[in-house]
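Batch manifest, entry 17 of 40.
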Amino acid sequence: MPLKHPDAVAAIVTALRRVHGDNIARALLAGGVSSAALTDAALSLPIGNSDAVRMIGRALDSGDFSFTPDIGPLWYARYIYEDRRASMRVIDMEMSTPDKTFANTEISLRLSI
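Output type: structure tokens
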């Protein structure tokens, strides 16, 4: 099954490889990686914070990842900013649905291929 958004997936793969190495990144993508680990990997890249956040958002919206638990079709990412006056630096995120808000550590993503 071809990827719907290969560039978004490639960016996530690159982030995970850089932090965890090639073999572990493959295992994480195949078996499931926590949204927290994915976020940490993306935010640790030598790119701007806003670029990393956009990369995460594109990957989550791509439809190329399945979520556990199944959060359904209606959800949005809520970004948590650094606790500093007027800071726009994202440090974490949550996934909100009409019924529940999930911490980043509660969500697992698996590449759907």
